[in-house]
Amino acid sequence: MSAAPAERVIRVSAVVVTDPSGRALVVRKHGTAVFQQPGGKPDPGEGALEAAVRELLEETGIVADPASFTPLGMFRDAAADEPGHTVVADAFALTLPGPEALAGAEIDELRWIGEGDVDATPLAPLSRNQLLPLAWR
């Protein structure tokens, strides 16, 4: 009997960004077809919150005080762009005073979506199943 293959895990930090009208920010990275929350892999020695703050700035130009992020917990789902991998995200919430974001770094497109836009938006499993429902609870 052979051992089961080890789970291939991708660790990231993700930010559920909302604006006062209740829309959530999603981004689509270069070379991908689905949208997800801003975020990414922590650099060596970087904590989850530090990575969230840095990735949000790099991907959207949003400068936010780390104290304004609310921890949401750790979530896992199938990775959108790496077949056979699981993404495990330390997630944080951030509410902005207005929808000020610009596509930067590796971002091709960003969108502000409402709860009614989810079905028509191609979304990563982690975003669709775990993170976006938190934006509208």
From TrEMBL:
Keyword field contains Hydrolase: yes
Keywords: Hydrolase
Pfam families in UniProt: NUDIX
Coiled coil: none
Domain Nudix hydrolase positions: 7-136
UniProt cross-references to Gene3D superfamilies, sorted A to Z: Nucleoside Triphosphate Pyrophosphohydrolase (3.90.79.10)
InterPro entries cross-referenced by the UniProt entry: NUDIX_hydrolase-like_dom_sf, NUDIX_hydrolase_CS, NUDIX_hydrolase_dom
Record family assignment: Belongs to the Nudix hydrolase family.
Protein name: NUDIX domain-containing protein
Organism of provenance: Microbacterium rhizosphaerae
